[in-house]
Amino acid sequence: MSVLQAVFDKFWDPDIWLPPNITWADLESNDKIEYANYKHLLYPLPMAVLVLIIRYFVEKFCFIPLGLYLGIKGSKHKKAVNNEILEKAYRQNIKMKHKEIVGMAKQLDWTERQVERWLRLRKAQDKPSTLTKFSENGWRFTYYTLSFSFGLYILWDKPWLWNSDLCWENYPHQSVAHGVWWYYMTSSAFYWSLMASQFYDVKRKDFWQMFTHHILTIFLVDLSWVCNFHRIGSTTLMIHDFADIFLEAAKMAKYAKYQRLCDMIFVMFTIAWLITRTGVFPFVLIYSTTVRAPIIVNTPMFPAYYIFNGLLFLLLGLHLFWTYLIVKIAKSAISAGQMEGDIRSSSSDASDVSNNSVNHQQGDHNSSPHKPVEK
Question: Where are the extended beta strands (E) located within 213-337?
Fold first, then answer.
C-alpha cells in the first residue's frame, strides 16, 4: 500500500498540475468558489452507458422510421450459405489472396468461383445499409445540435466567451458554474460513448484518425478540468460542436437523395468548418493558451499546461489534415456539379461512392471531427 500511495502522491504532485505555490488544499471548494473536482471525472463513465441507451432508442424510434418514410431502404444483401471453415478463414483474413482461395477450394472440394462468390456475399453481409448510416448520422446530428445549443446558452452571458483574456483572470481561483459542470460531464460522456461505439458503428476510412481524435478530446476535457482550464475548455467544446451539425445534416440529406439540399448544407459546413476549426480555434483559443495565458497569469507555467497545449496542437494537426480533404472534396464537387461521395468520412460501402468520386473526407467526430475539447 505504501508503494501505491507513493505512486499516487507522485502522480498528483501539485508541481505537475498546478501553478507554483498552489496546492490542492488551495483549490478546495468553499462558500465563495466552487472549484473543479477531479473525482467528478468518474461520472461520465456510467453516463456514457446512459448515452448509448438513449442513442439506441433515438435511432430505433426516430431516425429509422424517418429514413423509411423518406424512402431509404435497409439491407437487402443476400446471405452467404453457412460454412464454418470459410467463416473461420474469413474472420482471420477478410482479404484472401488467390493462393488462399485456391487452397480453400481444394479443402472444400469447391471451385474457385464458388469460394469467390461466397466471399463476395459474406463481405456484403458486413456492409451497413444506407438506413443504418442515416440513423447514425441522425443521432450525431441530434447530439451536436443539442450540445452546441446548450453550450451557447450557458456561455452566452459569460464575459470570457467574448474576451479570451478573461479565461485567465484570477487563475486558478475560478469558480465552475453549474451549467459548465453539466456541459463538461455530458460532453465527456458522449466522447466516451463514441470510443465504445466506434468499434461496431459504420467503419470509415478515417477510423484511426477519428479514434485518435476521440482520445485527444477525452484527454483535453479531463486535463482542462483537473487544471481548472474550464473556461477555455468549455469555449473550445462549443466551437467544435458547431460545424459538425452541418456535417451530419449534409450526410443525412445525401442518404435521403436530396442532392441539392446536401450541396447547400455542404457549403454551409465548409464555411463553418473553416471559420471555427482553422480560424477561431488556432488564432483565438490556441493563441490565448500559448501566448496570452503566461502573460496574464504572470507566473512560471507548469508541466500539465505544456501537455495541454501540446494536445491542442495535435488536435489542430488533425483539423488541418481534414481541412485538406474537405477542400479536395469541395474542388471535386465544383468540377462535377454536385457533392460526390461521403462527406468527411468515407464509408466502407462502395455503393455510396461512384467510381469517379472522392473517396476521402474529414471525420468526426465524429466524429468525428468527430470532435474536442472534440472534438
Answer: none
Largest separation between any pair of C-alpha atoms in the chain: 79
Which segments in the chain show pLDDT lower than 70? 1, 75-78, 125-126, 202-206, 336-375
| Residue whose C-alpha cell is 467544435 | 240
DSSP readout, 86-121? HHHHHHH-SS--HHHHHHHHHHHT--HHHHHHHHHH
237 neighbors 187 (Cβ within 8 angstroms): yes
- pTM for the whole structure: 0.80
Q: What residues contact residue 117 under an 8 Å CB cut-off, 6+ apart?
A: none
- pLDDT tens string 32-82: 899 999 999 999 999 999 999 999 999 999 999 999 999 998 766 667 778
Between CA 89 and CA 110 the distance in angstroms is 15
H/E stretch holding 180 reads helix 178-197
Measured in degrees and rounded to the nearest 5, phi and psi for residue 253 equal -65, -40
CB atoms within 10 A of CB 190: 30
CA angle 216, 217, 218 (to 5 degrees): 95
